[in-house]
Amino acid sequence: MKTIHTILFLLLVITLPAQELFPGEGFAFNDEVLPRIDITMDPSDLHIMWDPANHNKDVHYPATFVMSDGVEEDIVENVGVRLRGNTSLLSPKKSIKISFNEYEQGRTYKGLDKMNINGEHNDPSIIRSKLCWDLCEEMEIPASRSNHVQLYINGDYYGVYINVEHIDEEFVELRFGGEGNLYKCLWPGTLEYLGSDPDLYKVQSGGRRIYELKTNEEEDDYSDLAHFIDVLNNTPDEALQCELEKVFNVQDYLKSIALDILTGNWDGPIYNKNNFYLYHNPRTGKFEYIPYDLDNTFGIRWFGEWATRNIYNWAPDGEPRPIYNRIMQNDTYRKQFTYYMSQFLNGPFNETAFFDQMDDLKAMIQDAVASDPYYPLSYGFSISDFSNSYTQGLPSANHVPMGIKEYISDRRASALAQLDDTDTPPIINHVRNTIPSVNQEIVITARVEDESTPSVTVHYTIDGAEFATATMYDDGNHQDGAANDGTFGIVLPSINQTGTLDYYIEANDDTSNTNRSPFCELRTIAVVNTLPLYINEFMSRNETTIADPFGEFDDWIELYNGGDEPIYLGDKFLTDNLDNPDKWQMPDTSIQAGAFLIIWADNDPEQGPLHADFRLSGDGEAVGIFDSDGASIDMVEFGAMEDDEALGRLPNGTGAIQQVSPTPGASNEPLTSIQSLQAAVGISVFPNPSSGQFDLVIDNTNGASFSVRIADQLGRQVWAKKVQNSHSFAEQIALPNQASGLYFLIVRKEDGAVYTERIVLE
Predict the structure, then answer these.
(1) Which of 287, 351, 381, 549 could make a disulfide contact with 385, Cβ separation 3.0–4.6 Å?
(2) Which residues, listed in sequence order, are joined to residue 255 by a DSSP beta bridge?
């Protein structure tokens, strides 16, 4: 049988996740408090916006936005405000969309283009969708962040709302990287096969497309969606696992199926063929499923019975729902779904912890609900209804026949009774690898889940030679993240030649169940011979580590020439968007052999040739070096970073990316080996900044020998001295011929410890 190879040129991994699938709440989505949002707009605009005759007009009105959590306050002028929603437009308590980039193109607030402030008028508890979004994170389903907020417009209180993260380019860039096609799928989005012509899937309903492309709209190319739907509908049963996993992240979608069934989300793709997103991830070539609009849940019932419906037969009888039926009819996927359902029922959907979480949210918002002027207007809800809705149905509202806790108890009991008794083989997902040059180490990681602790191995061949096998570990020491977090990793040595490394991952559990990924093929890593120019170290949240020559603590990227000859940079490019390889042309200079160069990622190129026209995202992204033909020289991808955390290669250039001690402009060192000069060796440099003449004093208490050198941003040494067995060192240093800018003072002790300090010449 012929083996099929898939070359994944842009599939990268480092110690941290490739992107931040579950970014922190931050200020905008802080759910530990009840923030206040104020919108101030022209009263006449507000009147026009509220007029029912204008509800379906996609018109934004200028406003000022203020958000406060009681301690901090942000003000954003000139935002756009409009109503949002469908049936909710008929409700007195209307939902609001805030667009930060409506009048100032490219502007964001806390990384957000938009905010969705939802009225939740159907839900007397004002909590159901919030519970769903929280469950998504606990179930490891990439989804929107959310929090409760109090909304004021022109100083008037409009009530308690839920702020739900908008799903757009920023959303998918943050979680998946790249700029793939994002489709908003609305009723009647069955994902039925309509034919091979991609334009057939631009079919409309109600004046808009059922599958609405929200990114790359100018290209308007539906080929990827048409191919996915073709594979989903037309692949023979015996080949479904092989073919579907090439184009769809099935395992993560199985978690979303469990979420819909447990929460009773009938308004999604499985039952009502409505309200979901599909994103074609360019880094993996697979579609990702993204949940959307989760308010009709936890017993909200306009029809049907959701607390006891069979978990293996949840779609409507006799209607096409291939995204559910084809998957659940596959024995392997049914077992994997059963595993996830069992994990959730005994984890986040367990009544004890879940009820405590609900009670905390209820206590936080109830006083604000009591004074919400719009809360009673749709269904006559009272504050007593608010309280009762957590435990019992409301006779006054036919669509709320069950309390939330009542629904959860019934759903959990029925699901546990319906679960298959099965032993699921280990589930392998999120397989990633670095793309190395000939002298770089190769990192491979995978997420592996099982009831027991599985044994995981990688089987690989170089240029078709005999397969070798290496054990993968989940111990925190093999580029696998934290110990025992379910991610297994291995660092393979460089192959020191151009060629290909083909591999698959195998996992076995303690009952001799086995699984492999890819299921029917090999993954291929193309090892290329590139210039020895590396992204060696970087920092995306530089708060105090190093200031640029203008005294600004900007993000930075350290380049390193690991070769024996100078490398000219002027015909090469640096980018934070791998789909735009020529984003920023590097300066007209060369980096010397063995030297380091700092590029300031500050989106401030007018400050000089070493200042790039982009910033790094503290939530994670990709950075690459490309030549003038668009060929990759080096690239890294990273997740969220802490303040003043540095990631770099150990050893320089060729090693795997990992957390290192910050050494901008100097050789990378393990996390524990670098200390500040002031704390470790009692250094003082004054004045600093200086005109090129300054005093250097070092109090070396242990009397050990050490060397001192000063280097410029290209790593070129401009001054050096060795000090033998001295308890103190004092010298006046003059650098009259050096240009103004940033320099590095580096002290290396005889035991190998390295200390760095920054010097600025004016």
Answers:
(1) 381
(2) none
Residue 642 CB: number of other CB atoms within 10 A? 10
Q: What residues form DSSP beta bridges with 638?
A: 621
Residue 203 CB neighbour total at 10 angstroms: 11
User: Which residues have a Cβ under 8 Å from the Cβ of 360 and sit 6 or more positions away?
Assistant: none
Q: What is the CA radius of gyration of the chain?
A: 29
Cis peptide before 549 (omega within 30 of 0): no
User: What is the rounded CA–CA span in Å between residue 435 and residue 97?
Assistant: 41
Burial of 543 (0-12, 13-18, 19+ CB in 10 A): exposed
CA of residue 33 relative to chain centroid, distance: 24
User: Which parts of 294-330 fold into alpha helices (H)?
Assistant: 322-328
What is the residue type of 62? P
Decide if pLDDT at 21 tops 90: no
- Contact status, residue 646 vs residue 539, Cβ threshold 8 Å: yes
Q: Model confidence over 574-605: pLDDT tens digits?
A: 999 888 899 999 999 999 999 999 999 999 99
Residue with tokens 């049963």: 237
CB atoms closer than 10 angstroms to residue 701: 10
Angstrom distance (rounded) from CA 131 to CA 447: 26
Could you give the CA distance from residue 429 to residue 697 in angstroms, rounded to a whole number?
55
- Judged on CB neighbours under 10 Å (0-12, 13-18, 19+), 202 is middle
Largest CA distance in the chain: 88
Residue holding tokens 């408090």? 33
Type and span of the H or E element at 73: strand 73-84
Give per-residue pLDDT as tens, 244-274: 999 999 999 999 999 999 999 999 999 999 9
d(CA 575, CA 614): 8
Name the helix (H) or strand (E) containing 185: strand 182-185
pLDDT at residue 435 in the model: 83
Reply yes or no on whether the pLDDT at 188 is more than 60.
yes
Confidence grade of residue 542 (pLDDT, cut at 50, 70, 90): very high
Q: Which residues make Cβ contacts (< 8 Å) with residue 184, sequence separation at least 6?
A: 167, 211, 212, 214, 277, 292
Q: How do beta strands 427-433 and 442-449 pair?
A: antiparallel
Q: Where would I find the H helices in 13-168? A: 43-50, 128-138
**Dist. CA 308–CA 179, nearest whole Å:** 41
Nearest alpha carbon to residue 448 among 433, 434, 429, 432: 429
Q: 655-682, pLDDT tens digit by residue?
A: 989 888 888 988 898 875 444 444 445 6
Helices H, strands E: what count in the chain? 12, 41
Q: What is the pTM of this model?
A: 0.81
Neighbours of 491 (CB within 10 A): 19
Rama region for 745: left / alpha / beta (φ>0; ψ in -120 to 50; rest): beta
Q: How far apart are CA 683 and CA 696, in angstroms?
A: 7
What string of H, E and C letters represents the secondary structure of 534-585? EEEEEECCCCCCCCCCCCCCCEEEEEEECCCCCEECCCCEEECCCCCCCCEE
Q: What angle do CA 519, 523, 526 make, to 5 degrees?
A: 175
Per the CB < 8 A criterion, the answer to whether 227 and 312 are in contact is no
Cα–Cα distance, 62 to 99 (Å, whole number): 10
Both structure tokens of 286: 């697979």
Show the tokens assigned to 724: 């033998």
Task: State mean pLDDT over 439-463.
Answer: 95
Tokens matching residue 680: 């470790």
% of the chain beyond a pLDDT of 70: 93
Q: Which two tokens stand for residue 617?
A: 């995202």
Q: 132: which 2 tokens?
A: 């769903």
- Determine what percent of the chain is predicted with pLDDT higher than 90: 71
- The rounded distance, in Å, linking the Cα atoms of 94 and 87 is 10
H helix intervals, 286-401: 322-328, 331-345, 351-370, 383-388
Cβ–Cβ < 8 Å for 470, 520: no
> Is the separation of the CB atoms in 600 and 607 below 8 Å?
yes
